[in-house]
Structures are given as structure tokens and as C-alpha cells.
Amino acid sequence: MVMTNEHTHYHIKIQGQLDDCWKAWFEELDIILTTDGDTILSGTIVDQSALHGVLKKISNLGLNLISVNPHSQQNMENF
Amino acid sequence: MLANLLQTKFYIPSKRPSLIPRPHLLQKLDAGSDCKLILISAPAGYGKTSIVTEWIEHIQTKTNRPRSENSVGDICWLSLDEDDSHPQQFFRYLAAAIRPFSNIQSSLIEQLQSPQPLPTKNLMAAFVNDVTTIPASFYLVLDDYHTLESAEIDKAMAFLLEHMPPQMTLVITSRSDPGFPISRLRARGELIELRANDLRFTETEAAQFLKQSMNLTLSSEQIAALEKRTEGWIAGLQMAALSLQNRDDVTHFIDGFTGSHRFIMDYLLEEVLNQQPPEVKAFLMETAVLDHLCADLCDAVRQSPPPSQQILEQLETHNLFLIPLDNERRWYRYHHLFADLLQQRLPPLSSPSKGGKEGGHLRASQWYEANGLEQKAIHHAFAANDFEHAARLIELVWPKMDGSFQTDTWLEWAKMLPATVTRTRPVFSVSYAWALLNKGKLEGAEARLQDAERWLDAETDVSEMVVIDEARFRTLPGSIASARTYHAQALGDNANTIKYARQALRLLPEDDYIGRGPAASILGLMSWAAGDLEAAYQALAEAMNGFELAGQITFAISGTYGLADIRIAQGRLRDAIQIYERSLQLALAQEGASIRGTTDIYWGLGMLHHEQGEIEIAKQYLSKSEELGDQMALPDWPHRSRRALAHIKAVQGNFKDAHILLDEAEQLYFRGPVPDFRPIAALKAQLWIQQGKLTEAWKWVRARGLSVTNDLSYLREFEHLTYVRLLIAEYKINQTESAVSEAVECLQRLLAAAADEQRMGSVLEILVMQALAHEAQGDILSACKPLERALTLAEPEGYVRLFVDEGVPMAQLLSTIAAKKIMSDYVGKLLGAFDIEGQAGTSKADSSTGRQPLVDPLSERELEILTHVAAGMKNKEIAAQLFVSVNTIHYHTKNIYSKLGVNSRTKAIAKAKALNMLE
């Protein structure tokens, strides 16, 4: 977990595929569909409480959360 | 206190007819009646609430008792939402939830009315206390616990589970495990859990559900495919079943659905919506913003036919995720998951027209306002992004929120408003300042006051100003001055405190009792601290009288001990007693309600009668006070009672306990507006002096920078008197000549200062100490002069302990005065009080004094003490055993020695044995 207050780029993986129309609901995070039928919400999340807000929305929809990973700007290319 | 609560939150949802029976889960829940906690923890859409409602119906059928009766199987229900995250609100609902079962007055409700918000632990302790009064076992269901986001409430819940009375079982449904630890409960077998794996439909259940409840004809392969795709997720299966209603291409649909990776709900909602008639589809979209629905509210939000009631009932019949919230078909809500899905499909908030979502919220806000539910109205105003409307509502609701101690919630709303909206609103700004002051946020408060003041300047163009609450606008200058008084006082700025308090009292209308009260109180306390006792008394009396006229009895009574203490400082014990007696009548006259502060009143009366030597009356009052305890006391009682008890322990010679009590009192002390005339450090120094530990006392003197040349003030008088006691002790123990002359000099100055301010209580204490200083020097003649003066002043008010607590030296001085036949009655009474103290608790027969071979036989009491001495007890221990002061024991042993003609303990014991006086 990155423990700084700086904005962090996150990849949040959810089971199943979400339509693009959920982008606004999930605070404009990018919705990326993976080949194995899952979804990655990707984008900058300002702080811990914003992150928890997104996780809460996932929980409210009954979606299965698979993983949450912070990515620094440098290793974005590796994605 | 419990007004304005949403009754729908207490409604136990009725069992949904479409549910299939799940006996294995009911069985598991049945085992929970012996547990502390039943936790149903699973993500959205797993039928958590449904299984609880099914189980409730199951136990009620089983026990065959209606739910209104207090008996096994009783259920209290509370549906939680985000607004309950404020502990004050949470506890208001909690108190109301168990109300029907609790026959006696709720102590939680009492605590919630405390002028200072209490820690949540205290509130939960009060709740536990209320639960113990419930005669039969019951379940408390907290539905949707995950909506609470409060570490404080989690901590309070942990406390509840630790202290839960046996008649209660807690049932929690939550989308995530609660924020309090449950592993210990699990290990102790005090927890029953249902989790996602328990709740998901098995293939058999899925088949039963689809076939029987939803009337679908499906093959077992199709059922298996649906079960696999939804993983037994009930909401998913229900949506799938709804999509399959009246469909010809079932196979095609199931193939498409099970072959897709798309989020189930995305896939299915569209299907479900497309199957609805256009007016139902429109209704769903238009009302998606509402977290509660009733026909009237829906009509107001939709502004289009057909009538909402008809559609609501239709949705309920078709299992379209609409849950009734009462049994009158009035209030409903959507299943939370379904509501989220609908809302996601609405156009974004930022659209320029006030149509769509924003318009819906705004109309909902207006409906709630018209129906007197301000909290909901404000919630929707914010959701509509209409800050003007929100500000209007928030401005109007302040007096109500302030009066019911809901500053926290109000402040949170205020902070959500942009400055451009709030700064144009002077009434709002002043409320904002008060709310911040209540929370101790001083800087922010002044800025808000200046925002408000800007508009009151005659030069200002007020065309931009917004005032909603006209009545409060008229008293704004007074309210601003009043807030500034409070502000200056919190900063310790005495000059400005007095200035603004006077200003506030000048500006506020005569009959604005609630407004004038705080200013008058503060002015009173300031004058008190400055030693202007009469002004202090007048101001405080005005404040308390005003509170009484305004019906704020607790506030009116909270000033009692201040008024009485002022009279005591003036040496007017009888007036002080009258003040307490009057308040006691006022408190007892409150029909049915027990008033906080009653404990303090009984204590005050007890201590005053104790001072006057009325031992029996004092005892009655003190035990009454003890009986009522913390519950009926003012908030600083735990601190004040320990301080007073420490004094009693010290008089009895129990210094160890006295020190412990003072340490506790110190920790419980919070600096309030009441001046601290007897700082705890000084009280501790007095204990050290009495114990002969002068080094410790000198350390305190140096730390406080005390010397005979200090400037004197009433606030420091007690410290100076303590210092003088140390000087006298120093002279007695170490024969330091300079010490006693310094003491005499200091007392002279203290006397002049006290006399100057007409503080006769202080004058008396100083005269007594002058006498003791001269007595220590062996100058009895000089000692008698101040003592005689003290006696003349003290007699009309009936002082006793003032003299008696000083022990042997005072007894000897009084004997000298008695010999001079001055004020014989009073002095005789005082000397008698030494004797009464000596005789209290005597149990032996009179005859024992008869067989003493002494010219001057030992008294009953002296014999008793001698027995203890012979048994090897220390004076301190004897004092504790006989409930008298250590000084009294000294006094008695001295007499015993002189009667026996000895000068030590060992010789006394030997002589008494020789004379066969000991059994």
C-alpha cells in the first residue's frame, strides 16, 4: 500500500464485465475489459477516503472485488 | 427529545410472499437465542433482511404470541442509514427502538439531554442500564449496519457486547463485517453467523424459487445454467426471473445471458425495464432519487399521471424490488441495489436544466419541507446541488437543532455550503459562529461573526443580503455580542469578556431569557473571579431566573451551587441553605422527570448542615445525594464529589485515600467557566502539611511562586492561606521564628483584602488562622482577640466545623475563652461539638467508668481509645475506626496521658494495665 497523500494511480479489478456507461458512476475511472472476462477500473484516486468510496460503490452493486493495486506513474508503461 | 424521528425506521418488514422457505437457515438462527450476537454479513442482494424477516415470522408463529406483548420472541427493529453515523442521532433512535419494552424512564434519554455532549461510552452505558430494566428476553435488530461510518459507534457497540444484559440478543445485518472485533465472541461461542456462502441459493433452492415463486417452466439444465451464472446470488436470480416473465424465447435468452461476461445487473435491468409498460418505466426513473417513497411524495416529484399509489402497489405485486416500510401501504423503499442501478441510468447531475435528477431532488426537498421533515429536505436540497435552498433550510432549522444538541449534524451541513452562499446570510453566519464555538473552534467563529456584522453597518448596501429568519435578524447585534463574550471568555480575555457580556445584556430584549442567560452567567462568573461577590450574585441570579422562566429547569438548577458558594464566601450560610432548598423544591416539582443537579443540591445541603454541626440532618442529605449518584448530577460532579470526599478523609486522618481522591479529581477536571478557588495542587499541599511532609509542601510553594509579598487576589487567596498554614507548621516543627512572623504579617494583609471586599467567609477563616498562629507562638492572649471577633461574626450563621476541624489547639483556645464567660452559649456548643465527636459511636456500658482508681476518671471514649492504643493501633487507624479526626484522637490521648500522669504511649499502656483498666 502506498502511504503518501499524493494522488495515486490505481488498478481495481472486478469480476465480470462492466459497460462503459458506469464510467461516470465510478468517478470517471477508465473501464478496461480484460480478456478473461473481468474489468479493471483504472485511474487517479486522490486519497484513501476516495479509494474507500470507490470500493464501497463496488460493494453496493454486489460486484466481486478481485484486487486493488497502486501504480506509480513510472511503471504505467509496463501495464 | 424523541420527536421528529422517522417511524418507518422501526418497522419490521413483513415477509415477502415470493420467498421460498429455508428451514436449515432458520434452524441455525434459532440457536442464536443464547448468543450475544447474530451477524448476517454478505454483499448486496443476498437476501439478508429477508431471512431475518422470515425468521421473525417463524419464531412468532412458534411461540404463538403477538409481537406487542413483552415476552419471548420480542423484536425491536431499527433500519439504519448514513445519517445515523452521528452518535447523537444513532442513540436517539436506539433509545426509541427499545422504548415500547422499557416501562421505566430511560436513562439514555436523560443523558442525551445533557447540555454538554457526553462520550458515546457513557451513552452506551446508559443504554445497557435501560436494557437491564426490560423484564423479558428480546432481540434488537440493526438492519444495514454497514451504512454507519463511525468509529465511535463501533467502539460503543464493542462496549455493548462486553456488557450486554442476558435478556438481550443483538442481530446485525451488514454488507461488510462490522468495525468492532467479533473474533472473541466467535471463540466463546457467543456469535451465530450467516455469510454469503450460507445465504446463496443452492441449485435445489434456485429451482424451487424459479418454478414455484416465479412460476417459470424451465428445464433442469436451464436452472443449473442460471444458478451457475448468478452463483446463487439471489438478486441476480430474481432479476433473471423477472426478465423471463412472459417471454417466448426462453432458451435463446438463457443462452445469451449465461454465455455473456457482462455484469449480470447491466444485462438484466435493461431486459426488465423493457418489459415494463412505459408509465411504469418512467415512474421508476423519476423516483429513483428517493430513498423513501410514498404516493404523495412521488406525485410531487413526478408531476405527471397516472397516480403514484396505483403504480406503487403494482410494483409491489410484481416483486419489482419495492419494499414496504409499514403495513398501511403508505411508505416504501426500493431495494438499495436496485435503486443504485436505476440512478446510474439517470442523466448526469451537471445538466443545465433543472429537469431530470436535480429537479426530482428539488421537488422532493420542497415536499419534505412542507411536511416538516427538515433533515430529509436538506439532504435532497444538497443532492439537487441547490445550495441557496439548502442554506435557507439550514438557517431555519438552527434553533431546533441547537435546542436538541445536534450541533454536529448542523455543522456538517454548514460546511458543505460554498462561502459565496453563506457570507451573504448574516443570521446563518451567526448560527455558524455559535456552532463552531460549541465545538471549541474559536478562530473560525470570529470570521463568521465578522461576515454577519458587515451587513449590520448602516453604510453597507444590503441589496445582496439574504435573511430568512426575520425574528432572529432583529436580535442579531445582541447575539453577536453574546457570541463574542463566549469567545473572549474561552480565550481567557477577561476585559473583553466583561465588555461584551455587558454589551449583550444591553442589546438583547428583556424577555429573551435564553439569549440573555449565557451572557449574564458569564458576567456573574467573571465578577465572582474578580472578587466582586454582590455583582456576581446579581448577574447569576438573573441568568438562573431567566432560565427558569424559559422553562429550562436543568440550566436554572445548574447555577445553584454557584449562587450558594457565593453566599458561603460572603459568610451567609443560612442564605446558602435557602438557595439550595428553593432549587430542591424546583427540581422536585418537575412532574415525573428527575432533574440533573439534584445530587449536587442534596450534597450542598448536607455539607452546610455539617458545617453547622447538625450531624443527623447532614447525614440524611449526604446519603440521599449518594443514592441519586452520577445519574442525577451535573457533568462536573465526578470531579467535585471527589474533592469534597478528600476533605472528609483528611479530617479523619486517612491521608492515603485523600491523596488518591485528589489525584482522581485532578484527572476528571475540565477547565470550565466556573473559577477554581481551591486548586487541587493547593489541596494536596494542605494534606502534606497535615502529614508533616513539609518538604513536599515547600516544593509546591516554589512552583507557585508564593511569598508574603505577593499581590493578593481572591482567586489566589486559598493558595496564600495554605502557604500560611505551612509557615505555622514550619514554626511548630522546626521552631523557625521568621516563619511565624511572616505568617502573621501575611494574614494581616489577607484580612484587610477580604474585609475590603466584604467576603466574610474568608474573614472568618483568616481570623481563625490568626488565632492559631498566635497559639503556636504560645501567645494565648493575642490568640483570643481574633478568635473572639470570629466567634461574634460566626455565631449568627451557626458555624461549627470552622472551629472544630482545627482540633486540639482550637479546643484549648475555646476553653480559655469559655473560662472568660464570653459568648458562653455558643462557645459551650462548640466545645460540646468536640465532645460529641469524641463520643460518637460509643457502645460500651456506662459502668466501666465506675471502677477506675483515678481522681479524674477516663471518659467512655477515652477508655475506648486507650484499648485501641494498647492493641498497637496508630492514631490514624484509631481515627478511621471511630470515624473522627486524627486531631480529635490527639486531643483525647493528651487528656488520657494527663489523667494517668504519664507522657508516652508505652507508659500509658503500662499504667492502665497496672490499674486493671484494660480488659
Short description:
The complex is a heterodimer of chains A (79) and B (919). Chain A has 79 residues and is an alpha+beta fold. Chain A contains 1 helix and 4 strands.
Can you walk me through this structure?
The complex is a heterodimer of chains A (79) and B (919). Chain A is α+β, with helices and mostly antiparallel strands. In chain A, 16% of the residues lie in helices and 32% in strands. Chain A has one helix and four strands; from the N terminus they run E-E-E-H-E. A four-stranded antiparallel beta sheet of chain A has the order 2-3-1-4, covered by helices on one side. In chain B, the strands form two sheets. In chain B, strands 2-3-4-1-5 form a five-stranded parallel beta sheet, with helices on both faces. In chain B, a hairpin with a 7-residue loop joins strand 6 and strand 7. Chain B contains 49 helices and seven strands. Helices cover 63% and strands 4% of the residues of chain B. Chain B is mainly α and 919 residues long. At the A-B interface, loops of A face helix 13 and helix 17 of B.
Spans of chain B of 5+ residues with little confidence (pLDDT < 50)? 67-72, 350-354, 838-851
**Low-confidence spans of chain A: pLDDT under 50, at least 5 residues?**
74-79
Beta content of chain A comes to 25-35%
Strand elements of chain B, count: 7
Proportion of residues in extended strands of chain B: under 5%
List SSEs of chain A in N-to-C order: EEEHE
Query: Structural class from helices and strands of chain B?
Result: mainly alpha
Q: Mean of the pLDDT scores of chain A?
A: 82
Main sheet of chain B: which strands, in order across?
2-3-4-1-5
Mean pLDDT of chain B: 86
Helix-residue proportion of chain B: 55-70%
The shape of chain B is elongated
- Morphology of chain A: globular
* Main beta sheet of chain A: 4 strands, antiparallel
Report helical residue fraction of chain A: 10-25%
C-alpha termini separation of chain A: 18 Å
